[in-house]
Structure of ABC-type Co2+ transport system, permease component:
Amino acid sequence: MHIPDGFLNMTTVAATGVISAGGISAAVKIAAKKIGEKQVPLMGMLAAFIFAAQMLNFPVAGGTSGHLIGAALCAILIGPWAGIIIMSAVLIAQALIFQDGGLAALGANILNMGIIAVFAAYFANSAAVSIFGDSRQGKLIGAAAAGWSSVMAASLAAAIELAVSGASPLGIVLPAMMGIHALIGIGEGLITILVVSAVMASRADILQLERI
């Protein structure tokens, strides 16, 4: 999912960088007005968990592997705007420390996994809970929908960015990205279910916090 340097043209690098910078700026302003004492440690724990979890890869198919994105967990546990801040911090640290994703492509990676994935997860979870109810079953279905949708939305954005940059024709990169990430999204959905289920069992009060 992390796009390395050399795959995006300068127009895409600049456009995604500007959009991501605007998204982070808006997230900081909104979070600063709403954040409370209980949300601060939760944001820190989520950032640490997602940073560590993204280091663990699981096999998918054809020798490929996937890893947790974490956008769904952010959207469900603390809300989309705080989620943008958390995901951006994780992606920036990964790029600077581990060269996971290019520095020039950092704006695109933040846009895909830190903004689009977070909001896709937020709306998918909200839609599922509104349909299936705010029961335990409804929340777990929402977690699954959020996890899968976040991966698919991020991979769709990455495929479009690669295509408009001329790295690969859309007819090739789109089905390749969407196909493999449909499987990775199942893993993301399962991990999101496990974490949300554990939170409901041990710290249900977290799910009652105001979403930012």
